[in-house]
Amino acid sequence: MKEGFLSRRQFVAGGAALAMAGVFGALTGCTASGSGAAAGASAAGASAGSSAASSDVLTMVWLPDNSSADLSAAREAMGQAITDACGREVELLTTTDYNVAIEAIASGKAQMAYLGAEGYVQANKKNPKVLAAFTNSDEEGGLDGACYYSRISVLSENADQYKDGDSYSIENIKGKSFSFVSATSTSGFKVPSSAIVDQFGLESSDELLEGGAFFSEVLFGNSHQGSAVNLLSGDADAAAFDDVDVDMYLNLVSGEANSVGAVYQVKDDAEAPFDTVRGKQFTIIGITPVLNAPICFNEEAISEEDRTKIVEHFCSDEVANNPQIFVDPEDENAKGIFEKASEKTRFVEVDDAWYEPVRKLNGAE
């Protein structure tokens, strides 16, 4: 198993054209329906891997949120499952930039990727041959509740500034400093920015990209962990980040999980980047469910035979019951990307149509 790293500098040096993805709307629920695929021209070189021999190394690219050192065992377990499925050696390509991960799968440099819903839509727009294949299920083993959560949070010591009767609201975030994850992050920008646009009647989320318009200052954490640390370190007054990428570092100390008013505290033994903010607390003042992220293929860069083998294996009971892939949420020492929320939790097939709501929000295409 090989693990590599791809930076923006390396991609630019290799001639890849990096473009900031457009930002639109927001997702407001867990369930989805609809059909259709986004239009877009194929990225240069994407077809180069279409005839690659099955013995060639298969590359899977990861977003910054899943590229940290403490998740290396989880990535390796996923890589081993790919090898078990199709017999190919796997390279796991980590990144520190959302756009680099998107460009890697769109261009065919990587044959597989684990992307957020918005990242997937952007990759598919760049190259329609990038298609969703499977995702992690809800607790019933299906897709109806297959979602995670986008949070807008503030330091608990300042939470009273955001009180709204017995609860909280985002009404007082205007004029404050704010941290997003990346402009191509679903739960770290697209969803929370849309909530802010709707709440304040803004013309577009473009007003939220730079300080001086709506916020006094705008930061980007480049990962959900980074955005949370921007808040907890005091660099930002409020921040957007999800639950699945940060909760392994946290304890719920009051309130109901993933609800407005819930208070979380960084664990005393939290690893980097949370080691500098151990014991700090934040309070959720806004929250929205988000469609689970897909694992996708660049179908020009990997054969149909290999795709079929990989999907069948990942959707099998064997993978569903692999504790290195679906970790026990009760095990505080377990570091994983996916949790075994119930006995029925597993990977399930998904297609491009399931992510159509992400395209259609606020009329975005």
Q: Can I get a quick summary?
A:
The protein is 23% helix and 23% strand.
Notes on the protein architecture:
The structure is a single chain. The protein has a seven-stranded mixed β-sheet with strand order 1-3-2-4-15-5-18, sandwiched between helices. The protein has a seven-stranded mixed β-sheet with strand order 10-9-11-6-14-13-12. The chain has 365 residues and is α/β, with parallel strands linked by helices. The relative contact order is 0.21. Strand 9 (177-180), helix 5 (186-200) and strand 10 form a beta-alpha-beta unit. Helices cover 23% and strands 23% of the residues.
Secondary-structure element string: EHEHEHEHEEEEEHEHEEEEEHHEEEH
| Widest beta sheet: strand line-up | 1-3-2-4-15-5-18
The dominant shape is globular
The DSSP helix count reads 9
Low-confidence stretches: 6-53
Largest sheet: 7 strands, mixed
Q: What average pLDDT do the residues reach?
A: 86
Structural class: alpha/beta
Work out the radius of gyration: 20 Å
Distance between the termini: 38 Å
- Give helix % range: 10-25%
Q: Tell me the β content.
A: 15-25%
Number of strands: 18
Keywords:
alpha/beta; 23% strand; seven-stranded mixed sheet; 365 residues; 9 helices
Topology of this protein?
Elements: E1 2-6, H1 8-13, E2 58-62, H2 72-86, E3 90-95, H3 98-107, E4 112-114, H4 117-126, E5 130-136, E6 147-155, E7 163-164, E8 167-168, E9 177-180, H5 186-200, E10 217-220, H6 224-232, E11 238-242, E12 250-254, E13 263-266, E14 281-291, E15 295-298, H7 304-314, H8 317-320, E16 326-327, E17 338-339, E18 347-349, H9 356-360
Parallel strand pairs: 1-3, 2-3, 2-4, 9-10, 9-11, 16-17
Antiparallel strand pairs: 4-15, 5-15, 5-18, 6-11, 6-14, 7-8, 12-13, 13-14
Helix pairs in contact: 2-7, 3-4
